[in-house]
Amino acid sequence: MALLFLAPSLGAQKRVKGYVIGFYNMENLFDTYHDEGKNDYEFLPDGANQWTEVKYQKKLRNMATVIQAMKEDNKVWHTLLGVCEIENRHVLEDLVSQPEIAAANFQIVHYDGPDRRGVDVALLYRPDQFKVIESQSIPFDFRSSTITFELDSLGQADFRTRDVLMVRGTLDGEMFAVYVAHLPSRIGGKGGDLRGRGAEIIHEHAVELMKRFPGIKIVVMGDMNDDPTDESQVTYLRARETIAELGEYDFFSPFIAMLKAGYGTLAYQGSWNVFDIILVNKALADAPAGTLKVIPFVAKKFYARIFNKPFMIHQDGPYKDQPKRTFSNGAFINGYSDHYPTYIVVSNQ
User: Fold this and answer.
1) What does DSSP assign to residue 185?
2) 150 SS3 class
3) Most CB atoms within 10 A, among 4, 82, 207, 308?
């Protein structure tokens, strides 16, 4: 079921529904088998991580435990949960069947992508709430009229990264679309142009969708490998800090305010970033009364939440107060992820 609120309506009480929509980077959710053509060797039993079935099952249980903890806080399961750093459909099937979350009856939208390590993005959804009409795996390309790329033609031909997933359907009877992304890495200090292009691809596709289906409500989510104030987000995805400043094809990014307030979803060398971002289009941010609209629900101020509980956090040592990840200095520590999950709530109130 969805979140239920009681709202005053002409002196009476009206039942109002709310839906949780979130994103989680699961930090290398790999199975123990080799996928042909993929560089997944470190996540094999004889690989660098000695990735055994025991470790894999612990990882699945830990991911399910976090999803269950969010349900306990919200009193309902996610309606939509985008995920990244997952190896294949098999790991997702194993995940959704974990006893901690099996009752949610999550269904899966996933495509095998071109990433060399084999990590993909996917969407888990509640079929009793979200009705899928179509889905598409959108590949990365270099066909931009606004970006000058660092890679030459040979480098571009050799480049591989995750596809963007688009899923269109209906939620509470309204046309609704979700994009799930994992934009190119920052490794080596490069990739700003690549992340800009990834964001541009999403925005171009979303604009076409808005033209095809006027009034469609859109959520873009993902590990952007950039903060919400970086160029890829502000310039190419047209992220805006407030609903009041939204143009027709802009996106409201609630994480801009959260970053400025000192929140973070991951830490690197002692500094916090917000890479796990969820944005909504104007139709969802500034919706008419009685239709689905993103709502503030954290201290009645922020329109999004970064979810962290003590069990997900290093309590001592050099990484104190940071996300408790799966490995630390090469050793398996039975952690969760190096990213915290994020989510928003949309409601018809």
Assistant:
1) P
2) coil
3) 82
* Percentages of the chain per state (helix, strand, coil), in multiples of 5: 25, 30, 45
Angle of the 53-74 helix axis to the 89-96 helix axis, nearest 10:
60
Which pairing describes strands 276-281 and 251-252: parallel, antiparallel, or unpaired? antiparallel
Q: Minimal CA–CA distance to 303: which of 342, 245, 248? A: 342
How much is the pLDDT for 87? 98
pLDDT in tens, 74-127: 999 999 999 999 999 999 999 999 999 999 999 999 999 999 999 999 999 999
Helix (H, G, I), strand (E, B) or coil at 298: strand
Q: Residues with Cβ < 8 Å from 311, sequence gap 6 or more?
A: 65, 69, 324, 336
Kindly report the length of the chain: 349
Residue type at 315? Q
Token pair in block for residue 121: 């993005």
Picking from 235, 224, 240, 158, the residue whose alpha carbon sits closest to that of residue 191 is 224
Q: What is the pLDDT of residues 39-73, one digit of tens each?
A: 999 999 999 999 999 999 999 999 999 999 999 99
Distance from C-alpha of 167 to C-alpha of 82, rounded to nearest angstrom: 11
Q: Which residue, chain included where needed, has tokens 């025991």?
A: 54
* Placement of tokens 């292009």 in the chain: 197
47-to-29, 51, 327 alpha-carbon distances in Å? 15, 7, 14
Residue 258 to residue 88: CA distance in whole angstroms = 32
Residue 26's contacts (CB-CB under 8 Å, 6 or more residues apart) are 63, 83, 84, 85, 86, 337
Taken in order of first residue, the domains within the chain and their CATH numbers are 21-128 (no CATH), 130-289 (3.60.10.10)
Q: Say whether 89 sits in a helix, a strand or coil.
A: helix
Q: What is the dihedral of CA 273, 276, 277, 278, to 10 degrees?
A: -150
**106: which residues sit within 8 A by CB, 6+ positions away?**
77, 81, 96, 124, 125, 126
Separation of alpha carbons 265 and 31, rounded Å? 25
Q: What is the CA radius of gyration of the chain?
A: 20
Burial class (CB in 10 A: 0-12, 13-18, 19+), 128: exposed
